[in-house]
Structures are given as C-alpha cells and as structure tokens.
Amino acid sequence: MPASPPLEMETRPAVELDVDEIARVWLESYRHADGSPAEMPPFEHFRTRIETEMVSGMWAVTVAVCEGRIVAFLSLVPADSVLRELFVLPSMQRRGIGSLLLGQAMRALPEGFTLGAAAANLGACRFYEASGLELVEDYIHPRHGILYRLYGWHVAGDRPWNLDPRRLAP
After folding, report:
1. What are the residues whose beta carbons fall under 8 Å from the beta carbon of 148, sequence distance 6 or more?
2. Higher pLDDT, 130 or 167
3. DSSP letters for 138-150
4. Which of 29, 45, 72, 98 gives the lowest tally of CB atoms within 10 Å of its CB?
5. Is the predicted pLDDT of residue 130 greater than 90, yes or no?
6. Cβ distance 21 to 71 under 8 Å?
7. DSSP character string of 101-116
8. Which pTM was predicted?
C-alpha cells in the first residue's frame, strides 16, 4: 500500500470564531474514544466549555488546521502546568497530529505538566506512554467516578506538580 502524502498542517492559537469547530472535534473524538460513555453530553456542553475556558483566558488553546479545517486541538492551563485536553478527529489520527500538538505542549511548558486520561481510553494511554510521559498514579475522577490515569512529563529531575486529582477535574 502506498504511503499517504504528507499533510499540509498548520497550528495556530485558537480564536473565538473557532469555538464551534473545536467543540465538533472534541465531541467527535470523545465519541470514538475507547471507553467513552454510552450517553454523550450534547454538542452545546462542549461548545460552552470551550467558550468559557478559552475566552476567560483560563485555557491556552492551539488548533491544528488541515485543508482549512480544524482537525485537532490542544488546551493548556499554564498557571497549573496542566495539559487539559488533546483531541484529534478519528479520521485524522495516526498521522502525527497528536505528536505535533504534544510537542507544542512540551515546548510551552518546559518545566513539566500533568494530564489525566480515562484508564479505559487505551489508545490515549498507549499514546502518552509511547510519547515518554510517565504514569504517576491512578485515581478515581471526582466528578465522573471512573478510573483515571495521571500522567506527567518533565525535563528536569524534580516533579513540580500537585497530584491532587480534583485540580484536573473538568
């Protein structure tokens, strides 16, 4: 089978006009994730969350754009050294987009960061582990009541992160 042609990919900071497309990527990716809930929150839940966090300045959001369409996004909470969300459309996965965005998170937070992932989301957990993130601990998500995995990435020896999982609760 011939290799796929390289993607023409651009990453840029998200703007308010991107909110609907980011919410679409989040919902579609979440719907197809391993272990996703049978009952999905509605589109408006994702849209409101993005709009609230991004517009308030709490999240620094980066989007990946391919052929004029947002196909992935990354959200960071720099004040807490947290990678909050990283989602890639299912049809665009396994093309290096997640790695590109994870690399941006590493450059944006060179002192390290943590992120939480549902333990049932085996694809995401494998991706984070293969990308060099360290499994710090398992915990029960305070709002969803399901098993989550806390991952960390740090370039220096000390761990600056606060392991309180309530800090990670969306």
Report:
1. 116, 117, 118, 119, 138, 139, 140, 141, 165, 168
2. 130
3. EEE-TTT-SEEEE
4. 45
5. yes
6. no
7. HHHHHHHH-TT-EEEE
8. 0.84
Largest CA distance in the chain: 47
Q: Which pLDDT tens digit goes with each residue over 17-71?
A: 999 999 999 988 888 877 666 677 888 989 999 999 988 899 999 999 999 999 9
Supply angle C-alpha 61, 56, 71, rounded to 5. Answer: 25
- Please tell me what DSSP assigns to residue 4: P
Q: Kindly provide the residue ranges of all beta strands, DSSP E only, lying in 44-124, ordered along the sequence.
A: 60-66, 69-77, 82-88, 113-118
**Which residue's structure tokens are 């396994």?**
94
**Would you say 165 and 141 are in contact if contact means Cβ atoms under 8 Å apart?**
yes
Tell me whether strands 60-66 and 69-77 are parallel, antiparallel or unpaired: antiparallel
Distance, in Å, from the CA atom of 78 to the CA atom of 69, rounded to the nearest integer, reads 26
Place of tokens 């993005």: 50
CA of residue 36 relative to chain centroid, distance: 15
